[in-house]
């Protein structure tokens, strides 16, 4: 099965996979939560500013492709969504984590993938990362590929093959002050996820209050 996902579909699917593994207490996700996850500034390349409409359309297309589903939980008023990529694509959790990072951050080396999937799953070594990437590349309809090293690079990068973001090249980053570099990394990424959790919880509380006010005629 081959896919040609749009930029919006890739971002939404990547977010659904990411949040299932990193913030399971807030999964499945409401529309507001997906929009915030798509537009968050940490762990995203490029940073985007999608509207509710763009995200809804992307979710609907993912549902049509069999990659996402609507969830009607007991007591839920707002619709929630979950991915079913592991079933549809016939991949394991580790492979899903690798694809999510590639969808959310573009081409990556095995070292970058190991570090950036640390919040999702655990890889004991780079060899374990490489083994899963080989499996993804060897599928009948490959979901990832190894790129040739470019001049001046020490390591090869890997690219997801699910859709339109393939081939996107990030702009060269501005120099980062040493103090900022010390503040970056896994701890900063965990803090960013915690902030998103709080924002998601606040958005859901606001929805409940607004609904109660409408029911009371306030």
Task: State the main characteristics.
elongated; 9 helices; Arc Repressor Mutant, subunit A; 218 residues; mainly alpha; two-stranded antiparallel sheet; single chain
Number of domains: 1
Main sheet record: 3 strands, antiparallel
Could you tell me the CATH topology label.
Answer: Arc Repressor Mutant, subunit A
Q: What distance lies between the first and last C-alpha atoms, to the nearest angstrom?
A: 52 Å
**Spatial order of strands in the largest sheet:** 1-3-2
Structural class: mainly alpha
- Computed over alpha carbons, the radius of gyration is 18 Å
- Helix coverage percent: 40-55%
How many DSSP helices?
A: 9
Q: What sequence of helices (H) and strands (E) makes up the elements?
A: HEHHEEHHHHEEHH
CATH class: Mainly Alpha
